[in-house]
Amino acid sequence: MNDNIILCDTTLRDGEQTPGVAFTYAEREMIARALTDAGIDELEVGVPALGTDEVDVIRQLVSLRLPVRMLTWNRAVKADLEASFRSGCAGVSISVPVSEQQMSRKLKKSPAWVLEQMGQCVLRAKQDADYVCVGLEDASRASADFLLKVCREAEQLGVNRIRLADTLGILTPLELAHRLSGLPSELSVPLEFHAHNDLGLATANAVTAVQCGFRAVSVTVGGLGERAGNAALEEVAVILKQMLQKKVRFNLRRLGTICFMLSLATHREIQRNKPISGQDVFTHTSSLLIDGIKKDPANYEPFPPEKVSRRHSLALGKYSGVKTLNRLLEQNGIFLNNEQIDETIKKVRALSTRFKRPLRSQEIIENCCRARH
Question: Which spans of this chain does the record mark as coiled coil (predicted)?
Answer without folding.
Answer: none
